[in-house]
Amino acid sequence: MSSVNGYVDRVWAGGVAGWSLAPWVLVSINGASIGSVPCANRRPDVQAAGLSADGRVGFRASLSLESGDIVRVTTPQGRPLRHSPWLYLPRESGGWLPVSLAARHPEYAEIAALAGQLSLKRFRPLFGQPGQVAAVKLEAGEGSRVARFGVAPRDAAHLQRFHERVLAPAGVACPALHQSLRLGRRQALIFDCFPGRPLDWHGPGWEAWLPAVMGELERLQRFGAQYRASLPSRAGRRRSLLNRLLRRALGDALRWDRARGERRFLLWLLARLRRLPRVLSHGDLHRENVLVDAERGEIALIDWDRWGYLPIGGDLALLMRGLPGDTAERLAGGSQAQRFGVVGFTYLFQRLDRPGLADSEEGRALRRRCRELMGG
Q1: What is the pLDDT of residues 94-153, one digit of tens each?
Q2: Total number of domains in the chain
Q3: What is the rounded distance in angstroms from the CA atom of residue 355 to the CA atom of residue 353?
Q4: Distance CA 89, CA 112 (A)
Q5: Is 100 exposed, middle or buried (CB count within 10 Å of its CB: 0-12, 13-18, 19+)?
Q6: pTM value?
Q7: Does a structural domain hold residue 129?
Q8: 359: which of 126, 171, 280, 329 lies 20 to 30 Å off by Cα?
Q9: Residues with Cβ < 8 Å from 171, sequence gap 6 or more?
Q10: Is residue 197 part of a domain?
Q11: How far apart are CA 70 and CA 32, in angstroms?
């Protein structure tokens, strides 16, 4: 089964629309359920992508939303769709909400607690994900900041050391981490505000920003190679997506019925991916963790919790997830090891995202290319 749960495509004052491979989705507003919605509308784009045989996966629900409302859409198993939760803000709001709203809105409890420590006037949730798992833009007397909530104290301290000892001296483009404030048993991290939008929101043509991102990764890798002995003693505490991907593929390889004839190739691929050079990596570089300010032509990489020394090409494969393997390899370029890492991890991602990849011509072509790159 594909790891893609579906997408929330649009939220407006009167409704929500998107698609999911589940037979129905559950919709809630500000934590209150409004019921289930069937996924039966035709979506030719999903069918063309090979994710649905007949394309009858679309949903549309009628809502009545006010400024600051939060819409969540999940599968029946409780798994959120991509872009869920979604914050509804009408255009006339300018994206900002009054701090007074936080005191009477359960989704913004962290904002209300933070307002007791900082002088706040307005706030703006970012990326449509308020609460424990999101960043929120604040406006105080000294300007705008970004606050990230729900961080464990040990993780907050570790991330501060990484910003101070690696990201700042290496000159990597990322928002500076200013301070950490305790909110109950958790911490709120206060960052510089970067006036950009996630790369994933730029639509067709987002690949034009890849050279800038690759430049920052190369800067990080050079610093990591030069100062490895003096870096923090342990990598990011949260397991990187690449490590979880490798463990998943190994489990599939050891179960013949799930590997669908891939067992020998998967074992070969995993062995060689693990032997690739390890470079200092972001570890969670999906496109929503790359912010782009198109007007100024600048980027920033955010959310460094899963940094670590990982196989070369892994960050780029995750960044380009969804692109065909030959396209990803061409855009990545670099050494043979980097190109193999990109193609190998692309194969592992695609076998999760696209049911039937193993038996398709594209899957066979990716396997052939992996062996060509490694001479196996």
Answers
A1: 778 888 888 877 778 888 899 888 888 888 877 555 455 455 777 666 678 888 888 999
A2: 3
A3: 7
A4: 19
A5: exposed
A6: 0.79
A7: yes
A8: 329
A9: 219
A10: no
A11: 10
